[in-house]
Design goal:
The protein is of the alpha+beta class. 30% of the residues lie in helices and 30% in strands. The protein has one domain. Strand 4 and strand 5 form a beta hairpin. The longest helix has 17 residues.
């Protein structure tokens, strides 16, 4: 990774660290493969009334990048993908941009399936009106741990649980 990419990644992670959120709901659902399950987290960004976020996508971009980094770091090969897997590998800004899209409805999406032998199976959708949904397949409840790491604390639970 070159120095420009490293600096851009650090800036995005700083934005993620400054982004406050709370989990609204979590759900385990049947996975696409037998013996696995999917996991969905719905959260919302916490903001001040005069804060422009999330219409200013910078905080959302940092959040998406940080989750991508954590998902990549935890991902392991499955089946034939093992031949492309390298233990010492990093998720970079270019990887992030390749997984990113913006829909006509204003939804910002991160969608990662397999990346260099790692089975990420992570999709995140940030809605323009605030809700954020993280879906994973065959990753257990890893997404809860990623969010806890972002906040530097313990495993998070949905509000009211």
């Amino acid at each position: 990774m070159n120095e420009n990419d490293r600096q851009a990644g650090l800036r995005l992670r700083e934005q993620a660290a400054a982004t406050e959120f709370e989990i609204v709901r979590s759900e385990v659902f049947e996975g696409i493969d037998g013996g696995e399950f999917g996991f969905r987290l719905e959260l919302r960004f916490v903001r001040d009334d005069d804060d422009a976020f999330p219409s200013d996508d910078s905080g959302a971009l940092g959040f998406l990048f940080a989750i991508g980094v954590l998902s990549f770091a935890d991902a392991r090969p499955r089946g034939a993908s093992e031949m492309h897997y390298q233990e010492q590998d990093e998720f970079g800004v270019g990887d992030f941009l390749n997984c990113l899209s913006h829909s006509v409805g204003g939804h910002l999406r991160f969608d990662a399936d397999y990346l260099r032998g790692r089975r990420m199976k992570t999709r995140i959708v940030v809605s323009p009106d605030g809700p954020v949904v993280i879906d994973t397949q065959g990753r257990g409840k890893s997404a809860e741990h990623w969010l806890a790491r972002l906040q530097g604390g313990k495993r998070l639970r949905p509000i009211g649980e």
